[in-house]
Amino acid sequence: MAMTREQALLEYVLRLGDNALILGQRLTELIAHGPELEEELANANFALDYLGQARMYYAYAGQLEGAGRDEDAFAFLRSDHEYRNLLLVEQPNGHFGDVMMRQFLFENYYVLQLDALTRCDDEHLAAIAARALTEVRYHLRHVSQWIVRLGDGTEESHRRVAESLERLWRYTGEAFASDEVDDVVRDTLQGPDPEELLRTWRKNVKDVLQEATLTMPEDGWMAGGGRQGHHTEHFGYLLAEMQHLQRTHPGAEW
Amino acid sequence: MVSADSTMPVALSGNDEKAVWRLLANVADPEIPVLTVLDLGVVRAVVIDGGRVTVDVAPTYSGCPAMEMIEAGIATELNRNGYEDVRVHRVLSPPWTTDWISDAGRDKLKRYGIAPPAGAGRGGMKGNTRPLACPRCDSVDTERLSEFGSTACKAAYRCRACLEPFEYFKCI
Fold first, then answer.
1. Quick check: B120 pLDDT over 80?
2. Any idea what DSSP says for residue B116?
3. Is the pLDDT of residue B3 over 70?
4. Nearest chain B residue (CA) to A53
5. What residue in B sits closest to A125 (Cα-Cα)?
């Protein structure tokens, strides 16, 4: 049976929420580990924005689902196969170049997705996207400057960030591999067209990589499955830490 | 104006709407206490329906921890002044940008030592590229120390003339 518009919208909003929450959690792991004060502040600001965005998506998902689940239930009381985030955002932090490259590749996609969503037919999702878009644009500007600085920096910084790019590239294809959810959201809600996003993404990413004297990798095998709940081996550890408090003390509040 | 019998809903009127707006001028932003919620431009509407007051508030940043305190502050101020049935409702559209900060709010920010947002926020969050005047000595011989500051809404600057560091309310 074909997916209804309502089912697709709920699934789509959860994917957005899970991307925001999981990247926010990865960045939160870095709090107090910044290489310098400005980056410490930047990272904490990024993490806070993502947690705030995740809350907006989850609150809306709860409303769409109508089963009484709140933000905390979505964030803390699901198991790994129920999370729909991209594999890219769950990849471990590694070194500073890895962190910047992960965010650069993801946010180049996310700003395009958000920009398209501000024009979709679902008013509430369009409003969330408009709120988030200005924040993510500001992040991406900062992160892109770092990609250039590291790529066009010393021999060592170039080598290490080039490795980050090579390692993470295989996780970029998933964002643009459309499935039924994307199709229904595109066709019935005037949502983003993944093919169009990919074309713009490639151009934008290439421009910055070129400035950074980095070579855009050849497209090879691309990993997938995150959006269907099949995650990499790092994901369970992330969840264990993130959910520990709610699992140990169910219903705990500040 | 207030019935002592709390079980009886009090019918409120258009005068109450004006009174509520006046009371909102007493509710300060917890992170920048010189600004009221009206200066900040986050209050979108006040709706009186029977005995209930609903205040629509737009969030500044997605993750701004001050929003919950602002909402609680609004409810507390109205409760304290006899409005018992108060709802604070979060609205996302139209999204808040720094353009919603009032002129009075901009003056207050500057006197408080925070450079107000320069330029229009529409079209997305941008870094400031124009010379920014020091809120203390008005010199434009200033430099940015960090695009990110102590809260989501601020960046860190330094004045080369008076040598004082200052914060800038980012334009979004």
1. no
2. P
3. no
4. B62
5. B92
